[in-house]
Design brief:
Layout lengths: L8 H33 L3 H37 L3 H28 L1 H8 L3 H14 L2 H17 L4 H23 L9 H25 L17 H33 L3 H16 L2 H19 L3 H34 L6 H34 L3 H26 L4 H8 L1 H16 L27 H21 L3
Length: 494
């Protein structure tokens, strides 16, 4: 095999220009979540559990938005690479309309059925009561956050990665101030506790919305998108491309969101201590995988631009480079979780039982985080940016719904396995998808133009990977291969 790493400086500069703002933005967002959890932690485990479970429902909505983003960003990135501004604008318009549709639907469901939503996650009456208080206020968040989230990601697809960072920074400051005032009842405000956290989130999302669309409509000079463009007609060919590429992403992310909610339901029925422990572990997990999320975003956008330019050979090289970067940063994330996880647990006011459960689950997350990094870059980044959305949908359906969820249900609810073993079972799909997606990467079949789903890949020499190889064999064999090729190149005469 003759795999090559990208070595030119311009490539890494482009990756960094996207990765760093995204990573910083995700860090800020995680900081917001950690801030909410820490502040509510002063009110007891019931309120931590309630906000965590209510946010699982909200995360379900967010994942649907990411499904909208996934399909539209593939189109936007490839059209941007092809220098077709008109179709980029149409893609933006279509994505905003889809976001509004889903946002209004989720808002209505939340307003009408908050108690029923909470009962899905937990049978605990105290947790349900607090969760209803939280959901009543966050109902108003759906529309404004859904549209601004989609808009931020689409701007990122055309090279405007800093917008999301600026928006998240403003949101963090607003949320911090509002949380402090309304959770604890400062400066004459009533002490609202969990409702105060929800109100802080609402104010933060309003600020996000105003800044995002204020910039897009009045300051942006690259996309030239204006309010009137929201009412323009979308070409039938573009709509069909969106359905071909976007529907599998929407289905895939929707199933992932539903799967994540089932994970929360399983853990919710294992007790408030388990829910609180998992909420803390998730904050740590997300905090130390922010860089990989940045790489995933960068790999999707860069890959889309390259394929839009018609350079499939370079797209293959970029995909292989991103894969090895995911392995490296996955190992770094493992070390960081091991080092900082125990220290973070001490910040929270927890019972002895919850501390023990959290420590056990934290060790399980050190395994999860490595494969999470690899599969995130492959599924949300390289393969999605290449337009291989149907393959990814199949992977999610097969591995999450036929392996992870059934195994976790049986282990956690029927056999009474401990929380750490249950969460490992519920995330076993990360391991399987990591290996399967790497095999797909090497086949070259993932490169698909937005204009032609059957576009042949010019470079077929990457298809000689054996499908049954395990991930760890792939990692070490490819590193060895790369090292040998470098030595051969240095020893060959000029």
């Amino acid at each position: 095999m003759n795999h090559k790493l990208i070595t030119d400086r311009l490539f890494y500069q482009k990756v960094l220009s996207i990765m760093l703002p995204v990573a910083l933005q995700q860090t800020i967002n995680m900081g917001v979540n950690m801030l909410d959890t820490m502040m509510l932690g002063q009110m007891g485990e019931v309120q931590i559990s309630a906000s965590s479970l209510a946010n699982q429902y909200y995360n379900f909505f967010t994942i649907f938005c990411m499904g909208i983003i996934g399909g539209s960003s593939v189109l936007a990135a490839q059209y941007w690479g092809a220098r077709d501004l008109n179709k980029v604008q149409q893609t933006f318009c279509l994505a905003i309309r889809m976001a509004l549709l889903f946002s209004v639907t989720f808002a209505l469901l939340t307003w009408l059925f908050p108690a029923q939503i909470m009962r899905i996650y937990t049978p605990d009456p105290a947790v349900i009561e607090q969760g209803i208080r939280y959901l009543r206020i966050t109902t108003f968040v759906f529309v404004i956050h859904g549209t601004s989230l989609v808009a931020e990601q689409l701007m990122r697809s055309v090279g405007q990665a800093r917008l999301g960072l600026v928006v998240s920074s403003i949101s963090f400051v607003v949320n911090l101030i509002a949380n402090y005032i309304f959770i604890f009842g400062k400066f004459g405000a009533p002490r609202m506790e969990i409702a105060g956290a929800a109100l802080g989130t609402l104010f933060a999302r309003i600020a996000e919305f105003l800044v995002t669309f204020g910039y897009i409509f009045f300051r942006d000079r690259s996309l030239h998108f204006r309010f009137s463009h929201l009412f323009r007609k979308v070409e039938r060919s573009l709509l069909m491309n969106y359905l071909r590429l976007g529907v599998p992403v929407l289905v895939s992310d929707g199933l992932l969101g539903l799967g994540s909610n089932i994970v929360s339901i399983i853990l919710g029925h294992m007790g408030a201590a388990v829910v609180a422990a998992n909420a803390i572990c998730q904050v740590i997990d997300r905090l130390f995988t922010v860089v990989i999320q940045g790489i995933a975003n960068a790999s999707s956008i860069v890959t889309g631009h390259t394929i839009g330019e018609g350079d499939t050979e370079r797209a293959m090289q970029q995909g292989y480079t991103f894969y090895l970067l995911s392995v490296a940063f996955g190992l770094i994330a493992v070390v960081m979780v091991l080092a900082c996880g125990p220290l973070t647990i001490r910040v929270y006011s927890l019972t002895e039982e919850t501390v023990i459960i959290t420590e056990q689950m934290m060790r399980a997350y050190t395994v999860i985080v490595f494969f999470q990094c690899i599969q995130s870059v492959m599924t949300k980044g390289v393969l999605r940016g290449g337009g291989d959305t149907k393959f990814l949908m199949k992977a999610d359906i097969l591995f999450m719904w036929l392996v992870s969820i059934p195994l976790g249900c049986i282990g956690g609810l029927v056999l009474g396995w401990p929380a750490w073993l249950t969460i490992l079972c519920l995330r076993i799909d990360y391991v399987i998808k990591s290996a399967w997606c790497v095999t797909r990467l090497k086949s070259g079949k993932w490169i698909r133009s937005v204009e032609d789903a059957s576009l042949p890949v010019r470079n077929r020499k990457y298809s000689d990977c054996k499908k049954g190889m395990y991930l760890w064999n792939i990692v070490f064999m490819e590193m060895t291969s790369f090292s040998a090729s470098r030595k051969e190149k240095r020893s060959s005469p000029a």
